[in-house]
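User: Predict the complex with S-adenosylmethionine.
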Amino acid sequence: MEPTSGKAPFDVIAPDYDASRGGTERAAGFADMLAPLLDPGLPVLDIGVGTGIVAAELSARGHLVHGLDLSPAMLARARDRLGPRVAVADACRLPVRTGSVEQAVSTWLLHTGPDHAQVFDEVARVLRPGGRYLVVPAGGTRPTDDVGRIVGDLEERLDPGRTRQDGPWTLAPIAEARGLVYRGRASERPVTFRISPRDMARSLSRGLFTGAWAIGGEGADRLVEETRSRLLALPDPEVQRVREAADYVMVFAKPGPAA
Ligand SMILES: C[S@@+](CC[C@H](N)C(=O)[O-])C[C@H]1O[C@@H](n2cnc3c(N)ncnc32)[C@H](O)[C@@H]1O
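Assistant: Here is the predicted structure with S-adenosylmethionine placed in the model:
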């Protein structure tokens, strides 16, 4: 079985990452949400750039993007897309000068496990006054169909401290404690996606589903197996469920004159 609790699971799933996360369509959608909030005349730091699929779409819209990521295998793909403007680095210890960043983004980073307080410590440090940090959360809304309820239950049990929750109710107080201002949501758009119970069960066992990676909960492998059985016991497990959610950008700003 692929890792559900390993330290660097993104190195394992890197070859499957783009295709398993909606490919270019998702990335283009995120870039369309972010681009109107970014100044095209200033560079962008993408923290947790992954394979660079979103950063490449931002580049295609005229932005100069630098990327940092912990996973060498994800980053190898980002290097193919962005060239040498990427580096291996931890979001909790950014190799970036204090007060030097005008604008930073993270898409689907904070639900994967980095310590939110440390990330915001670093973001607050590297942003220049007036700078902004734009975050697209993974768990901003939770689907309520039968697959979504079973998977949500798994996520709760694997992460009882809710350290992976990345909605504004979690992040805004953390950011504000570090002197950043939460300016609210922007670029909100409904998204619909489809998955069958069987495909979700398959994705769990291949380690593709981030929510199944344990942080501090009960025995991860046993819980994942239980969840797979629950999914496969649903009526019509081959039939795709239509899942409704919403994507949005959270805007954090460091007080000071805008650039
Ligand atoms: C779900 S992927 C998202 C990648 C990309 N932003 C996207 O939207 O396609 C999360 C990425 O965050 C990276 N990551 C997780 N923890 C990190 C940390 N502490 N520092 C830097 N990158 C981290 C992972 O290696 C992975 O590439």
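The chain is about 40% helix and 20% strand.
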